[in-house]
Amino acid sequence: MHPHWHSASPENQRRLISLFIRSLSPQKSTSTPFETELKFTRSPHDVAAVLRWGLRHLQLDGTSFGKEPAEWAWYQTFSKEERAAEYPPKAFTTKLMPLLPKPHLDLLMATLEIESSLAAHAEHNSISGSKMSKFLGLWLLTASRAEADDDWESFYARWERAGRILEHLFLARIRDESVNHRMPMRLTELVNQYPYSRTSMSVEQDDMLPSPRFTTRSYDALFVRIDAELETAEVEKPKSNRLRLIAHAFKLDVAETGAVVQAWDTIKK
Quick one: pLDDT at residue 105? Predict the structure, then answer.
């Protein structure tokens, strides 16, 4: 997950959101200030952030994405039918579209259109279709983005699954479009090896498309949670900054030996 990017600007994002809200009022002109500003926005991360903002405030018809009430039932049906038919190029049209109500399908098509436009110029904007799918999957394909009993691990698993599902739909859409339309080579080369290798599939995710080699990579990370209490009459101000305390700890040497030292050396790396 990449919640923040060095090129992103919260100020630009707030301005775009404000202009978008103003553009909802009836206007006579064909072009709105929001559309004009959007064309000259430098960072695609700002555009993605505004799109995520819109999806976060969007309420899907029904209790879940798709026609069936069970979450991901539509995707499991599509994945199984596509596999059973040996991955036909028009699977998006023939297998997926009948499983989605029209409002959901329209939303999906509009989102995939944006993804394709950005992915076609990934060398310049550093936004691949896989990365965009991970950004938007949870917000687009789920009616409930958080559960009451969520912890970090369960939320991340749902976030990753939604992103991989949207990535699958993105690739299936490219194959579907390339049958009747000329597509940019940058997009068609993404599906040359479709459906990719099945050796990386796990038993738990047998309905998922195998991760292509160009998908976003996974890295090991250390999750550190820092709780800080605001200074009140009952709580004294901490004597030292907690982040400074952690930075100082990384500079210390451990006098002991054994597994603890090895773990600490791994953390410091």
Answer: 93
Structure letter (DSSP) for residue 143: S
Tell me the C-alpha distance between 18 and 25, whole Å: 12
In which residue ranges of the chain is pLDDT below 50? 1-2, 199-204
- How far lies 209's CA from each of 26, 29, 137, 143, 262, in Å? 43, 44, 15, 22, 37
Instruction: Give the tens place of pLDDT for each residue, 128-161.
Output: 888 889 888 988 898 777 788 888 888 988 999 9
- State how far the alpha carbon of 45 is from the alpha carbons of 42, 149, 175, 229, in Å: 9, 30, 26, 32
Residue range(s) defining the domain that contains residue 36: 8-57
Cα–Cα distances in angstroms (integers) from residue 44 to residues 47, 119, 126, 142, 150, in the given order: 5, 11, 8, 23, 30
Distance of CA 83 to the CA centre of its chain: 24
- Judgement on whether residues 84 and 174 belong to the same structural domain of the protein: yes
Q: Per the domain annotation, does 226 fall within a domain?
A: no
pLDDT at 197: 67
